[in-house]
Amino acid sequence: MTISTFIADEMTRGSWIRKMFEEGIRMKRELGADNVFDFSLGNPDVAPPDEFQRVLSEEAAKTGAGLHGYMPNAGYDECRRVVAGTYAAETGLQFTPNDIIMSCGAGGGMNVVMKTLLDAGDEVVLLTPYFVEYGFYVTNHGGKPVFVPTDDRFLPDVDRIEAAITPKTKAIIINSPNNPTGVVYPAESLKSLGEMLARAGAKHNRVIYLLSDEPYRALLFDGIVFPSPLTAYEHTIVVTSSSKDLSLAGERIGHIAISPLTPHKADITAAATFCTRTLGFLNANALMQRVVSRLQGVKVSMEPYQRRRDLICNGLAPLGFSFVKPRGAFYLFPKSPLEDDVEFAALMRKYHVIVVPGVGFRGPGHFRISYAVPDSTIKRSLEHFGEAARELRMI
Q1: Domain count, the chain
Q2: 280 and 315, same domain (yes or no)
Q3: Same-domain check for residues 140 and 155
Q4: Which residues constitute the domain of residue 357?
Q5: Which residues contact residue 175 at a Cβ distance below 8 angstroms, ignoring those fewer than 6 apart?
Q6: Predicted local confidence at residue 3, as pLDDT
Q7: What is the reported pLDDT for 241?
């Protein structure tokens, strides 16, 4: 075989999100873009804040030697200092620049962390339904994903997680606000999870790391405040990006934050900095580092996303669709009215609506809607959802 047999096998389990996105492109060509309602891809469509445009222009206009050259692999010292100060203010923990590594988005950051922590055969717990790329990030670096279902509200089931932990468990990945469910993990859930991980680590005489993927942490509804796992468990590593809070998904800028409480933080930071270089990232984008360091605390308006959440929830509920109402991000994960969610997604395509079957997130019996789309797309799609509901005798 020309390509790696491992990669060939991984490709067969490739993303349903991309499959549905590509199907949406095909249907738009055939039917016209205005006649297809594509909820497949979580691509933020709210414009970056005005402050971003101003700061970007100012930084791009600067001239001089070294502005666009190599830097320390962990990133600019000043940028890391500013990010560390933000975490210190939010959590009360004594973060320093040495606890921060700038990364090429959250995806790049998560691969750096996996490379840093995993020996061949180490296990990483993934809570389902989950963002499908996590499994690939783990296997990229010799690890073994262990899938554990969440409860009926899509919250961590601590008893199930504890039962899945073995002497080979190295980490657990959590994602709050969550893709695909929009659920935000409350502080009490994180506290219970942290207590269990400490107990399990003592039992197996090893540290079990809590890896918190937080690209949606600023996208919260109904006035809720983000509960940080950094305050719930000492062995926490945060990976995040500016893809969603500043609508900069294409700029690939993020960071890794290692809890100052974990005893091995110096080793982790040194290793992650080394892995940033040897994985080929070298360093995060120079211009974007300077920009985001000046935009701490700035984010896109949440009003459009919350309005769209309410539009889709208030539109689907009377049609008989059942779901957990999202508290953050821009996803809804309703139950499929058909037992086979792939069959339901195919039915919706008959009505020109593109949704992603839940099986693609190891959440069979559900489907995902990304409402990072114009209001008009949601409003016009409801008639088509209604036609499907009538065909299925839901109303």
Answers
A1: 2
A2: no
A3: yes
A4: 5-48+300-391
A5: 127, 130, 131, 134, 212, 213, 214, 216
A6: 85
A7: 97
